[in-house]
Amino acid sequence: MESEEKGELERVLNDLESDNRKLQAEYDKLKKAHDHKGLSPLPSPPEMLPASPQSPRDAELIAEAKLLRQHKGRLEARMQILEDHNKQLESQLHRLRQLLEQVLKHTLYTHTHTIHTLYTHTQYTESTHTRSHQTQIIMTVCLSIYPT
Predict the structure, then answer these.
(1) Is position 49 within any domain?
(2) Is residue 101 part of a domain?
(3) Structure pTM?
(4) Domain span at residue 25?
(5) What is the number of structural domains in the chain?
(6) Which InterPro entries does the annotation name (predicted)?
(7) Does any domain span residue 44?
(8) What is the per-residue pLDDT across 43-97, written as a single tens digit (0 to 9) for each?
């Protein structure tokens, strides 16, 4: 009976080892496909990580890996915050450009209207000397608004 049980256990063990090789091959294939797509690396399969630290070096490596994962998480969160802030700044810049454009259009309209009013006023002036003087005033205003 013992030899039959021993034979049965060896067959089960062989089957499990075969399944393990197949799963490992599938894992390696998926990992390569994952890495090829440029995604973040997959974690190591459980059998590659020690269940409990076998040596102080294993414990150090596990602790370091844990710290690195935490640091990576903080960096990714910080990057997301910066990206969101950048989007807000871009939106504000766009709005400020729109406001500046409106102000410039209004200013140009106002100055054009002022110049037109001054010019019209000079047309009704009776004296040639006064007209000449008013023309000089208009030119001075124009040059102060639109310097060359």
Answers:
(1) no
(2) yes
(3) 0.39
(4) 8-37+68-145
(5) 1
(6) KCMF1/Dystrophin
(7) no
(8) 555 545 545 556 777 788 888 888 888 888 888 888 889 988 988 999 999 999 8
